[in-house]
Amino acid sequence: MTTAYTQLHERKRTWTPVQVSAGNLLPGGEEVIQRALSLRILEIPVGNFITDAMKGDLPNEIGCKELLLSNIDDEINHDLALNYAAAVHPVPEKIQAEASKIAKTWIGFDAHPVLKAAILERSVFFVLLPIFFTFAATSFVIM
Fold it and tell me: pTM of the entire structure?
């Protein structure tokens, strides 16, 4: 039986994070990339928010649980990929400390875990993707 959850799951592509070489950042974009990479600290909390949500009531539809489990795997892969990028483009401690404060605030925010995960994905990570493409397109080169 096909549900919205199984349809979403079937559209996902399997991918494996790989180490990247430093390459070149767009001149003037170094701090933008450092700040964007510092927010990688939020990837694992997003996975944890999904895990927390799975402890409660879930829609009783085929594929819901499987889709959520695959999203947790995606968050682990995102974390690994962003850590590879941060390894070749180190983030200054001051910038990372700012990101840690943001993460602490999100983790402590009193809201449903799915809401927190959805907001972070849509307002942070979906926004960061074009930033990476714009300022680091020649940098995140597969080794």
Answer: 0.84
Region of residue 133 (left: phi > 0; alpha: psi -120 to 50; beta: else): alpha
User: Which DSSP category does 123 fall into?
Assistant: I
d(CA 82, CA 105): 21
Which residue, among 24, 75, 78, 31, has the nearest Cα to 49 in the 3D structure?
A: 75
- Using one digit for the tens of pLDDT, what is the confidence trace for 66-123? 998 998 898 888 889 889 999 999 999 999 999 999 999 988 989 988 888 889 888 8
Beta-strand pair 141-142/20-21: antiparallel
Cα–Cα nearest to 86, from 37, 32, 125: 37
Report the distance separating Cα 138 and Cα 129, nearest Å. Answer: 14
The tens digit of pLDDT for each residue in 8-53 reads: 999 998 888 888 888 788 888 899 999 999 999 988 888 888 888 8
- The DSSP call for residue 91 is P
In the chain, what is the straight-line distance between the N-terminal and C-terminal CA atoms, in Å? 41
Q: Which two tokens stand for residue 8?
A: 């979403």
Q: Please state, in angstroms and rounded to a whole number, the distance separating the CA atoms of residues 5 and 21.
A: 36
